[in-house]
Amino acid sequence: SYELTQPPSVSVSPGQTARITCSGDALPKQYAYWYQQKPGQAPVLVIYKDSERPSGIPERFSGSSSGTTVTLTISGVQAEDEADYYCQSADSSGTYEVFGGGTKLTVL
Amino acid sequence: QVQLVQSGAEVKKPGASVKVSCKASGYTFTGYYMHWVRQAPGQGLEWMGWINPNSGGTNYAQKFQGRVTMTRDTSISTAYMELSRLRSDDTAVYYCARDPCSRDGYNCLDYWGQGTLVTVSS
Question: Is A88 close to B95, i.e. CB distance below 8 A?
Answer without folding.
Answer: no
